[in-house]
Amino acid sequence: MKKIGICFIIVISSLLYNISQSSAGEIVWQTSKAEALALAKSQGKKILLFAGSMT
Predict the structure, then answer these.
(1) How many CB atoms lie within 10 A of CB 22?
(2) Residue 37 has pLDDT above 70, yes or no
(3) What is the rounded CA–CA span in Å between residue 2 and residue 4?
(4) How many Å separate Cα 38 from the centre of its chain?
(5) What is the pLDDT of residues 6-32, one digit of tens each?
(6) Minimal CA–CA distance to 40: which of 28, 26, 24, 52?
(7) What is the pLDDT of residue 42?
(8) Whole-number Cα distances in Å, 40 to 7, 23, 30, 50
(9) Domains of the chain by residue range
């Protein structure tokens, strides 16, 4: 019974890993807010803006 549970967990985790890898896209980082806004607007996308000091 314990072996079946372990096999089940391995199968489910490998399926979830494959699903997440197949739908993952490449992230393009911009260092300028103006460039990021222009690129996002041209592609019809939203942006995630990180702000803070680099210390």
Answers:
(1) 7
(2) yes
(3) 5
(4) 21
(5) 888 998 888 887 776 655 567 778 888
(6) 28
(7) 94
(8) 43, 20, 10, 15
(9) 2-43
